[in-house]
Each structure stands twice: as structure tokens, then as C-alpha cells.
Design the sequence.
């Protein structure tokens, strides 16, 4: 985002252009620092081929992308390429591909703010409380694109922190037999939700 100074603000004699430039410099540094894992994907010139393509798509989606959108690139990965992605701390989940390091509250809040500014959405952005594993939202009004962009995809009546959701999805895959699986209470514990919500999420 760009910066503009509030009209009428007393700058104590400082040059307004210099003040604006200083704030812009601080803001860019703050964004790059908080979202460093994300920028590390697109500033590494050694990345190439499907690894670079996956990195760009993750960047474009603020750190989380549907696996279906990068399936073609994942199919081209060899063992060394997968190692490179692990080094960049990219998690290739069975449903979503994401950067776990962006689950930190400061990164969630910043992505919520940036997404809202870019999409001209109301502020303050409705991000979950810091560290929440999940949160109940009004499904009728909640924007699934917003919540996915900040690392809390919307499933059922809740938005769920991506690492906890990925943990549940993997448990489903690992425990399934002949196309069926058994829901377990620990899945609700991982997501911090009641059993009724767990079933709605799994559906």
C-alpha cells in the first residue's frame, strides 16, 4: 500500500515529503520482516522450473494455495526439488499447500490488513484472536477468500488455522480404509471446537 499523511497533522516543522518517505520506508521494512518466509520464495533467484512456479503461486495467494492449483507442478517434482521446497518451509499438504511460518499472530493480522486494503474491505479486518486454533464465523457473510488468505480456511461453521486443519486432513487420509474413516475426538481438540462442529467441518 501507499502512504499519505493526514491533513492538518502537526509535523513539528518536519518536511512533509521527508516524513512520508520515512513512513513508507518503515512500512515496507515491516511488511518484509513479518512476511519474510513469503518474500524468500520470490527473491531466491536459484529457484527454477516447477519449484519456482509453485513459489510464485504461493506468493500470489499470500502463503496458502489449493493443492489442485499446483497439482501439475507438484507432479513434476523430483526428490531434490521437494527438498528445496522443504528448505523454504513449504508444506505440501493433501488439500492445501502453505507456509506454516505465517501462522504467527503478527503475520495473520498483517495479511488481514493488507488483504482488506487491497480489496477495499471494511477495517479493522476481522481476524481471529491471536493463536486461535479456530473461530466461529457467520457463514452467510464471511468471505472465504479473505480467511484463506490469512491462513484460516473456512470449513463448516468455522475458520480453522491451516496447520491444525492440515493435521486433521492427514489423520483422515492416514486412517481411512476402503474410502471410509472414523472421526475421532482428538480432531476436535486439535481445532478447539465441539464435536458437532467437527462433523460439520469434516462434511
Sequence:
Amino acid at each position: 500500500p501507499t502512504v499519505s499523511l493526514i491533513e492538518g497533522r502537526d509535523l513539528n516543522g518536519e518536511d512533509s515529503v521527508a516524513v512520508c518517505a520515512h513512513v513508507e520506508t518503515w512500512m515496507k521494512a515491516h511488511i518484509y520482516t513479518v512476511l519474510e518466509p513469503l518474500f524468500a520464495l520470490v527473491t531466491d533467484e536459484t529457484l527454477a522450473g516447477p519449484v519456482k512456479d509453485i513459489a510464485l503461486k504461493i506468493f500470489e495467494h499470500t502463503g496458502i494455495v489449493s493443492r489442485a492449483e499446483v497439482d501439475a507442478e507438484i507432479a513434476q517434482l523430483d526428490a531434490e526439488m521437494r527438498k528445496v521446497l522443504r528448505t523454504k518451509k513449504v508444506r505440501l499438504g493433501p488439500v492445501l499447500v502453505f507456509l506454516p511460518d505465517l501462522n504467527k499472530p503478527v503475520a495473520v493480522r498483517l495479511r488481514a490488513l493488507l488483504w482488506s486494503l487491497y480489496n477495499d474491505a471494511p477495517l479493522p479486518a476481522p481476524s481471529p484472536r491471536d493463536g486461535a486454533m479456530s473461530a466461529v464465523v457467520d457463514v452467510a457473510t464471511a468471505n472465504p477468500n479473505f480467511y484463506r488468505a490469512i491462513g484460516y480456511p473456512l470449513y463448516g461453521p468455522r475458520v480453522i488455522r491451516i496447520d491444525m486443519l492440515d493435521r486433521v486432513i492427514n489423520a483422515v487420509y492416514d486412517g481411512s480404509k476402503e474410502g471410509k474413516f472414523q472421526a475421532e475426538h482428538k480432531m476436535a481438540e486439535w481445532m478447539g471446537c465441539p464435536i458437532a462442529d467437527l462433523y460439520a467441518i469434516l462434511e
About this structure: The longest helix spans residues 16-34. The chain has a mean pLDDT of 94. The chain has ten helices and six strands. The longest strand covers residues 64-66.
